[in-house]
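Go through this fold for my students:
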Amino acid sequence: MHKGLYLAAASVLGAILAPSSGHTAPIVAGNYYEDRINPTCPQSFYFCRGTFSATPAGRVLNIERLACTVKATQPITKSTLNVATTANGSATRTFGLAFAKTTQVGNLHYYNVNEEVKIRVGAGRYPYIMIEYPNIGTAHLDCVIIGTLL
């Protein structure tokens, strides 16, 4: 009985703390690969994370382009493209990104990045975007990775 209550509480807490994913299945056409995410992160943390789909089994993904727009209630202090072995896992590889601030309207900060990248992601690995800010805030990411499957 206690285990059931614990599992129920953990799943409710996970649903509250997890960002809404707004994630659809990647587009695969031959070797072309495109994956989009648009998570909204609640005002609970000092960061926002958006996780892309796992690289298909038996395939390696060469990420060649990353594009994101971000709307946040805090200024971004750090932004990275990372690779993890599980959907919510820690980074096994990290690559710094330079999000350019385009404008600020009231307390909302708007950023863009659209750059060529050269990152190889192994089969079953999860690329993800992480932005960090100095104070607890909210953020919405709209990101795409484009690459080639090998």
